[in-house]
Amino acid sequence: MKRPTPTGRHLALTGIAITGALALAGCGGSGSSGSSGSSGAELSVGASYMPQPVSADMAAGFLTITNKGGTKDELTSVTSDSAGEITMHETNGGAMEEVTSFEVPAHGQLVFKSGGNHLMFEKLRRRPEQGDTITLKLKFAESGPLTVEMPVKSATYNPSTGH
Q: pLDDT per residue over 107-120, tens digit each?
């Protein structure tokens, strides 16, 4: 059976799909990994972003912390020169509650996503704009701190990764 030759539309759609995949691969933000040996936690951060805030003094942030190690750890605080305070929140049954730490399970992930666990940037020193990058320092109970570059996306940004 003869295969149809691609049309201009098919080629354009393929190009869009490739461009989108490359853009998503680059939107994860960056984080260095902290390791305390092969049996300890091995932490890395990806998929970080902040939707451009609608408020001048408050914003939300989302990211994923992956632990490839055999020991759990705990995220105990987040700081940034961009905000006077960053608090951590979990959402249970539609209610948002501030927490002082989050477990990062061994061989697992801690996911901060819209409608779930999230970071709240309070007392912003200036309102972040789309295209800016916010530098965060994540502190853990056992592992060393991680520095993360969090890109500011459009206010309506909705990543295909589900968070």
A: 999 999 999 999 99
Residues forming beta bridges with residue 136, ordered by sequence position = 148
The candidate with the shortest Cα–Cα distance to 153, out of 37, 65, 26, 67, is 26
pLDDT confidence of residue 39: 65
Q: Are 123 and 57 in contact (CB under 8 A)?
A: yes
DSSP class of 130: T
CB 99 within 8 A of CB 119: no
Task: Name the pTM for this structure.
Answer: 0.75
Cβ pair 45, 145 in contact under 8 A: no
Q: Is the Cβ–Cβ distance between 134 and 32 less than 8 Å?
A: no
Q: Which of 121, 135, 136 is nearest to 51 (CA)?
A: 121
Q: What is the torsional sign of CA 54, 127, 86, 151?
A: positive
Q: Note whether 51 and 82 are within 8 A (CB).
A: no
